[in-house]
Amino acid sequence: MRYVIIGGCIAAMGAVEGIRSIDKKGSITILDGEQRGVYSRPLISYYLAQPDRFKNLAYRSAEYLDHHGVDVMKGWAVQIDRSRREVVLHDGQIISYDRLLIATGAAPFIPDISGIKAPWVKTFYTIADVEALDSILTKGHNALIIGSGLIGMKAAESLRQRGLNVSVIEKERHILPRILSPESANMVNCLLNEAGIKTQCGEELTAVNENQANFASGLCLPVDILVLAMGTKPHIELAMDAGLKVNQGIMVDEYLQTSDENIYAAGDVIETRNIITGTSEIMALLPLAHREGYLAGVNMAGSKSCAYEGGIFMNSLNILGISICSAGSLPRAETEFLVWQEDHKYLQIFLDGDFLCKYIAVNLPEVTGPLTNTIADKIRIEKRLWQHFMTSPTLSAFPDVYWQKLRKEANYDYNKCS
Amino acid sequence: MKVVAWTEYCLGCGLCEIYCAAQHDGYNGNVLKIFKKGRPMHRSRLLKAEQGTWLNTCMHCTHAPCINGCISGAIKRDPNGIVYVDYERCVGCYSCVMLCPHGHVRPWSERHQVLKCDLCRDTGLPSCVANCPNGALQLVD
Amino acid sequence: MAHNIMMPAFKVQRDEERCIRCGVCVRQCANNVHNLDEDGWMWVQDDKCVACHRCAVLCPTRALNIIEYPLDFRGNQHWTPASIREIYAQAQSGGVLLSGMGNPRTYKNYFDHLLINASQVTNPSIDPLREPMEMTTYLGNKNHHSCGEKPQLKLDIPLMFSAMSFGSVSINVHKSLAVAAKSLGTFWNTGEGGLHPDLLDFGRGAIVQVASGRFGVHPDYLDNSAAVEIKIGQGAKPGIGGHLPGEKVSQDVSLARMIPAWSDAISPAPHHDIYSIEDLAQLIETLKVATRFEKPIAVKVAAVHNITAIASGVVRAGADILVIDGFRGGTGAAPMRIRDNVGIPVEMALAQVDSRLRDEGIRSQTSLVISGGIRNSADVMKAIALGADAVYIATAALIALGCHMCQMCFTGLCNWGIATTRPDLTKRLNPHLGSERAINLLAAWKHEMMEMMGGMGINAIESLRGNRLMLRGIGLSKEELGLLGVKGVGE
Ligand SMILES: Cc1cc2nc3c(=O)[nH]c(=O)nc-3n(C[C@H](O)[C@H](O)[C@H](O)COP(=O)(O)OP(=O)(O)OC[C@H]3O[C@@H](n4cnc5c(N)ncnc54)[C@H](O)[C@@H]3O)c2cc1C
Ligand code: SF4
Questions:
Q1: How far, in Å, CA of B90 to CA of B75, rounded?
Q2: Based on the domain organization, do C201 and C117 belong to the same domain?
Q3: Is B13–C24 a contact, with Cβ atoms under 8 angstroms apart?
Q4: Overall pTM > 0.80
Q5: Does B41 contact C at CB distance below 8 Å?
Q6: Which protein residue has the closest C-alpha to ligand 2 atom 8?
Q7: Residue B99, helix vs strand vs coil
Q8: ipTM for the complex?
Q9: Which parts of the sequence belong to the FAD/NAD(P)-binding domain (chain A) (predicted)?
Q10: Any residues with Cβ below 6 Å from ligand 2, and which?
């Protein structure tokens, strides 16, 4: 069996592990378009902040790839020939496959506005981006980050750590709009400002001129480096050209199979079922990319046996020592919530009846593991127990029903010695 | 392999935490030294819930969410199935903390990294198991 | 009352260079001796220390030591510090002094004045590692002439666990001993507190007690047993009853004893239906009928001055097993004056009773079991040679489980999870470890006994029984030697 994987990052690695859990012999070829080897995208901000300390961005080591018998081939795929089961590379090379995985991820969204091609306007997505930024940044210069999502925030952090004056500009009403609630955003905002990152919300970029950025409100800011972090769009062109079913992302069934039975897709490039809302959407998250890749790998190598139940949004980011963890989604705008706050710590949980559907934890990462799992596994926990938990949210106070369930699953009766 | 804690015989004495800390960070089990000279950081935690105390520790899950979700590949599994943190690689994003259903992986704020049980993989029998005065901890397959 | 003039009995020494403020001692002391405040200051209340050593044993840096309080009284051989302190205590409380465990006084210990024989040339010794050594013995009436075979208890080792009621000791003690007894091929004893429902499966390995309070006695209890033991008295407190304070009568204890929870459990001094040997005979007969003559009936009495006559009466009343408990026998709670001043040493009682029953020709109608202060396998050997069929151990078993002999059993605050019913303390004794330790102890004793028997050239424990030629007394008067029925050293 010949397995070919387009794209060589997280989903690809998941797939390698999935394939190898079943098929120890088949050949696996990864087409690495970026030509940087198997690296982890989220590490780029650490690399930019401390190039010496974090210069190794490898997600899995060379020995690991070797051990799994993976052939990493440099080359950008330009076409998939489904009838001949071949992938054509930019240099004309042809690679044939029995099973193909599209794990091409996404690329940063670049708005079509004047001046956007200026050399000091950058994106923040690849090693190349970081190298480009590194080559032009100067301590004390003004950096503007457009977009306060996870990527924008990580860019802001690393530039701040390199000594630039950093401002983050957000179009929506508050920062990290997809992750935080207005209340928690307020708190994080204060903490960020204290840590030296300025923020401004409700401003939409309209044009970039020589050393200044213009916004819809008329605001005009001086700038030396501008980083676009306005979201991503999946790399779906290949799939589209090949005639696979595509929406915003590639459409796959529960086995991660595309509309072609020999082609699977996983990671940021596909649409994933959000198990809280039931809708299908782009969920560009590393843990999901890995899991999807893994399951796709298992299904590619064996019979289609491992169904993917979908995922939940989850993010953990640390910005200058401020920890923000959040998981889940709101099924509707007006969802009941409970809040706990103490000094610089904050926890907000959203309840849909007896089900936890989302939480936001600021500087309180310790309790988030069980919270995430409660959401993902849809564990029913009565509201009064949540109310009790929220009086002092520690692991010790976490509702016992949760631990009991976990113990049962781990197949150990913790209460009785066997 | 994992350590299982029986609440029925857990005394809540806390020796597991103390010996856990002493076994790590190069202190080789020297409780006195780590507490007097170092910064004791226990991996597993004794939880004091209403129903009693119990040691919250790593299950070294077969499909470990922390390994799969680690953004840097710092959480690894060794040939014996032990899930451990490679401190050369951990950047302290706390994704693993957020993903661990057992609430076991926890921040090591001081170093911007994380702490988790490694079953004392360098020294043999996990220190908590070896030093539990009441056999409430057991290493099982 | 205002000021207590009693100084502490013990002093807790904390080596500050070693203390790491981990708080294990604070969490482990049920007497609240150790306190740690937010500023990291330790505050030790020596007054409350009972020297159970729990903190010292668990301290991870060995920072703790406990010594007798060094404050001396002016020396006086008559007014010893203990006697002065006892007066302080009574002047403070106005009550009877209570204590746990057995008589701690320095009365003559006959076991320590007996020496065991060994073979040299004239008869060969036996190597127990190479040759079979029979340790099995049977308890019960062996006089089969009258009316056929009588029920017998088969013991793979001549040792059993003695009566300690659930309530005076924790459920985990019962669990440990029940499991150990089963694995060792011997029996444990429920004591007078009934059988905990968790242990129904171990009933068949238990000797169940019927005592003056009749706690927990019902048909199923009698049925689900190996033998029934009527408890007349106990070596630690002959002649008086028992009193389990209400605090120890938890829900579980109340169920097993069939009495209301948190109420004092009072065992009357006598059985109110036994005022003579004839009455005892009636109860024995009743129990035999109730158990369809399938189980031996034992009678346990304390070793007192008239023990020989009492023993003769008890055997004639139909006891298949006669248990004699000496004055060193342990207890959960006894008035200190009684514990320390009433009764006689079991060695002497045993020798006398064995001789008397032989003289009267009724020795085969009963098995003799002794208890009270058996410390090691040599004590067991000497007891058997003096005439016992088997030996009961209690204190030694508890020590194996972790007891540190602080003698505070009656407070219910046993830090080792032994003499307590408080759930948080009970759990400190993990019966999986407890049973293992009890098994280890008895297995070790068995090895030692086989070694000693081999040395004597004896290959069956029953051949040692009553074989007083294997003993010699040392440092004993002619009279004592005569009473014990042994020759002196050199004879
Ligand atoms: C700065 C930053 C921080 C992040 N932090 C987090 C975080 O903390 N937590 C989290 O959950 N997620 C985070 N993410 C998102 C996370 O990186 C992605 O979800 C994850 O990388 C997706 O993996 P993937 O394998 O699907 O896609 P990608 O990692 O995007 O990999 C796709 C690869 O395919 C290559 N490729 C594309 N098209 C072709 C082609 N035609 N031929 C050959 N190769 C091709 C691309 O060049 C790329 O190398 C972060 C992202 C960034 C940029
Ligand atoms: S905190 Fe460290 S170990 Fe945990 S996910 Fe992040 S990088 Fe990996």
A1: 8
A2: yes
A3: yes
A4: yes
A5: no
A6: B70
A7: helix
A8: 0.94
A9: 2-293
A10: B 70-72, 74-75, 85, 90-96, 113-114
